[in-house]
Task: structure prediction
Amino acid sequence: MTTGLGSAGAPRQAAWLGQAIERFAWVNWAIWTVFFVSILVQTGPRRFGSTFSVYLDYATLLWKRETVYDATTLDGFNYWPASLLVYVPVLQLTPTVAGLIVITITGSLFTYACYRLVGAMAPDGPRPVSVFAATGILLLINIPAAWFNFKYIQAQVPMTAGMMLGAVAMMQARWLPASLWIFFAAVVKPLAIVMLLLCGALQSRMRLWLALALVAGFLLPFAFLDWPYLIEQHQLWAMKLSRMAHVMPRDWPFQADFQTMLDSAGIVVPPQVATAVRFAAALGTLAMAWRLGSAGGRRALPFAVLLLAGCYITLFGPRNEFTSFMVVTPAMTILGMLILGRNTSDLRGWMLLAAVLMLGIAWEFHYGRWVKPLIVTLTYLWLIRLSLAPARWKELVDGAPAPGAAVVSARA
Result:
């Protein structure tokens, strides 16, 4: 196998496989298109179930100045008020039409983000496969992880797209667009604040823009709604987040993170200890991103914060769900393709692609609550090892393709 992100170890093999993948690139895109269209065709209240319905229901409550947050339960709406403003423009439509519009826009944005990220990560110089063909492979591998999120019109889709486009803009030294994309990701789903904070701490040229974006995220609803009402809702939201941080891993049946992984092994982590672990992991993730970024090169830091943010969100994010691993799978796929593009016999690349597929499988929850977090844990530990020798990270994400790669068409 070879990809548009590198070349195989043997130039002749790279050229042959590159030509084959290039010739049949349309197959991968056709499968992705069929997947996307099938989601659109089946869009309806039963199809998108509780998730998108929750967004619409709570956006209606917000717009009517009614109580949005119930701090006594784990269910309901958990994002900040700004996230609901995204759905206000479609509230006058039927739920099915609203769902069609939102999934068309967000799904197309995700597809575009994958294409842009592959292009940004593709090595300079000759490539055996075009960015178009390599993106088709990326999308195909990520169908299992995307399936649930597309089907239920999850905010995970635009959040992941915004994070990827933010990383692309960082690689191009376009600091304002990078900040705006990460701000967009944090608005639609505030878990993207993990990437926002990492970038703000490590990239001085984004610090002011990201600080303003964070403030804007809190203040945005105040431009449309009554201040006393919003202050009360923010207070209730803070109380709800506090409750979420003080529950046991079995209290939310869909949770899948480091707590459920350890709980499955018979190790119960009390809420106070879990909070301390999350805080320590945040500092450790920041240190890792700094170390990986210190390797230099235009891709080292942006790709590190994208991948590490995804790992942190899925492993240490509050009440991470077993369907929410899509935020990390595109970056893992690209890293695997980079490795295999330079050496098709490198087991690390195959293991990363296998991990992406396993993260997308709809495991029976008894297994999913520990298998998926374990996969991310192993990836996280590998990144720790790479951070001890940043030059190896730079070689992976910024290294030149091996000699012998053939020049492809202008689509690259």
